[in-house]
Amino acid sequence: MEKRNNILIDPRDLAAALGLLTRLPVPIETTRAVARGAAAAWAYPVVGIVVAVIISATVAVMLTLDLPAQIAAALGLGAGVVLTGAMHEDGLADTADGLWGGWDRARRLAIMKDSHIGTYGVIALALTLLIRWLALTALIASGSHWAALIGAAALSRGGMVVLMGAMPNARDTGLSHHVGRPSTATIWLAVAIAGVIGLVTTGFGVVLMAALAVLLCGMIAKAKIGGQTGDILGATQQMTEITVLLAVVAASA
Predict the structure, then answer these.
(1) Angle between helices 145-166 and 184-201 (to 10 degrees)
(2) Spatial distance between the Cα atoms of 37 and 178, rounded to a whole number of angstroms
(3) Residue 137 CB: number of other CB atoms within 10 A?
(4) What is the pTM of this model?
(5) What is the pLDDT of residues 205-238, one digit of tens each?
(6) Helix (H, G, I), strand (E, B) or coil at 228
(7) In contact, 228 and 173? CB cutoff 8 Å
(8) Inter-CA distances, 47 with 16, 24, 174, 231, Å
(9) Cα angle 229, 232, 237; round to 5
(10) d(CA 164, CA 177)
(11) How many degrees, rounded to 5, is the angle at CA 18 between CA 196 and CA 185?
């Protein structure tokens, strides 16, 4: 473990993680947060819980107003997008454009860095938003959306930490490179937090499906660009979340 990260848990890590992964107005000691870097990644699953609770509460309020489940689900997803600044969705779009729009590693990385969105990105966003909306609507109908959203949010962000530590940075710039690679202890702590939350809310089978989704995302990134980037992490979060939601829907059908 690096000297700058000589303790495993700092109470300020949660604020730093919230500041990085959400748009919540959290007071942060910028110097301290930057110094901790990837050592604060253990808190990513906790940030997921915060996001999921806010989305679930939004859905609950909409249902209290007697709005249909479909509208409540759409507004809940909208709240999540605003809350996170759509950073994971942006990563998904860039990943889809880059990995499937480029013919070699250099071109794929260049496309992913481009701020413009292409056909693959648009289709990926449209399909994933549609799937998430349909899944959340079904979960609302079955009364299991709170547990499913919390489990999906924690497991998907725990998966991000795993790829951060297990895979090299595909480029020498960007958010993921700037944050750094977490230590083994930080990774295991994030996995433990996400795993326990996932087991309690969704069950072992769903946790296993989430792990397989993270593994598949990592394998594709390794084959296409030789490592991970911030976009890859965002795409992994989205695909893992979808996997969890669909698994819970299937289990409750």
Answers:
(1) 160
(2) 8
(3) 19
(4) 0.93
(5) 999 999 999 999 999 999 999 999 999 999 999 9
(6) strand
(7) no
(8) 10, 11, 21, 18
(9) 130
(10) 9
(11) 45
